[in-house]
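Collaborator request, handled under Task 6.
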Amino acid sequence: RVLFRSEELLPEIGLVIEQGKAKKLGREALLLDLAQVKGVYVPRFYDMAVDGSVHPNRRDVPQRILRRVATPTPEHAIGLVPYIETIHDRLVLEVRRGCTRGCRFCQPGMLTRPARDVEPEAIIDTIEKGIRQTGYNEFSLLSLSCSDYLSLPAVGIEIKNRLKNENISLSLPSQRVDRFDENIANIIGGTRQSSLTFAPEAGTQRLRDVVNKGLTNEELLRGIKTAVEQGWDRIKLYFMIGLPGETDLDVVGIAETVRWLKRECRPKGKRSLQFTLTISNFTPKPHTPFQWHSVSTAEFIRKQQLLREEFRKIRGVKVNYTDVNISAMEDFVGRGDRRLAPVVRRAWELGAGMDSWWENAQKAHDAWTQAIEEAGLTWKYRQVEKGEGHIFEAADSYDAPLPWDHLDTGIDKEWLKKDLKLALEAATVPDCAFDGCSQCGICGPDFGHNIVVKAPPIPEFDGQFQPNQHRAQRIRVWFGKIGEMALISHLDLVRLFDRVVRRGALPISFTGGYHPGPRISIANALSLGITSSGEIVDFELTEVMEIETFRQILTDQLPPEIPIYKVEEVDIKSLAASRLLDQAEYLITVESEGLTSVEQWENWIEQVNESSEINYEKTTKSGKKSLINLSDRLFSLSLDSIKDDSTTVLKYKGSCRNDGTMLQPEQVVYMVQMVSQQELELLKVHRQQLILVEHD
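Structure tokens returned to the collaborator:
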């Protein structure tokens, strides 16, 4: 196991393994060598005592495993770009590692100290370089508290200025509302305005002080007002229920806060401000001041009902609630000890997974419940459900050993106890990165100190992206889609061409409107899994390019399995290929149940070609059914080759217009089946060419 950041640790692990293999060390000896590396935890060398604490079972391993820290390296963000759309399909750079806000419920905030800023120039240069190399049209600046990166406004505006003509958008994770201002609005706004998310966490000032959120009502109101003034009319807010010291007034305070914000922040000339709320159930996490706290499932249900009654009176608010069963399981697993190992495995065997997805929630809950029961830990889970103190046997003692005490995060356990007492007094602790040391114990030779980079001057904002709609040249490209590229969907192909244009710095023209896009028009969508050697795409440019230069840039940036066959310039005033498209020619490979001869196939093909009516019932996506005459859409059908007694390749030419008048390969197989009365299976489809009509 690696404790936390592994960028600097992985080379050390690799070196130990390399040297161990050279010495022909056995598994036990190699693991023992790895256990000496700071930040590496080898569980087999540690045993759990009766009280739940964990201790070494041999003298030559560390008593406690020290957490490893590392400074972010922006250059590592530029990596391979997948051909298919993925989660977080953008360039992501970490601008600040660690958070010193001291929110008492937040485990990452405690485990990533000290805070370390990245130099602004390194961020700016990496993003500019990364956008050129990857072709992404979006980048994200990542941090636990991105707003605490003081250089954020300067970095964001400088990048927006440099890439102003590239239609690049910036997204940020959940931000601190107290730092949201016009500069932040400028860098995340634009033609593709991203959603805006804030996390007040609690509905009253007292409870925000209990959790040490460091947010006042005045700052909350000012941030929301700024968002409304900058054009946002939909905002997401995160709140929690079940926090230590919470009363019903604090719970109802969530609804009161939303009602107050809607009243004070009405967009001019628009409908009232729309809020989407997520109400999470607080689950205590190890290594935080609230690790000793617990809330019953019944109490969560009661508080959720209290909020439902309040929000029925407020319009324009959508509220999502976390499943209480999922929260109970999260609490049970999150603060468990080694006895949970067989529970986790058994739950997985019983079908647990994707537990937070509503369609799998009940199945996952049943799996976890059965696994807990089989492990004989039902009594322990019931403690969590009932919120009886905390889940450890010595529930009344903060000095009782915890299952994670052998993991040295750098945070002093005594400090966590003191901070919990301050929380119950609603006393706040300052952010040590800006307002002095909080004496948490992290700073020192093992973990270093906070590194806060002074913010550079904020450059003047040059304005949002304005699409260049000038059309100087249209270039038509004939290309193929072969090999594994047949598994790339049409939308992924559209994204690929967009990135190719950006990587090749081609002067593409843009459409106008609310969502301007590059003028790249693929003649017809090719179904997934079908290969082709005759696809067509049009590019419209803002300046004239040499055809051979354009072709070379395109070839250099595209994968080999999307070959370029032909490139030519067409009149800029002519219709796009998608509007000129009339027919398509296919090769289809079919397999028959029994043995077939050339004579049989020629006879069936002749009957199909001579048929004036072969009706086919088509069902639309909305469920409507209609009869279409396939014979009207077939222009020719011929025998291309016979591979063996049961496998045949047919060639056909049929309608292929973007108004929906298309003859699909499956429909041609249906036509042959109707005349042959044979069961045929479609094995492979290849589109040979798209045929355009002449247009004056």
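The cover message to the collaborator said: "The chain has five domains: 9-66, 74-335+390-424, 336-389, 473-574, 582-692. The CA atoms of residues 584 and 690 lie 4 Å apart. Please let us know whether this matches your experimental observations."
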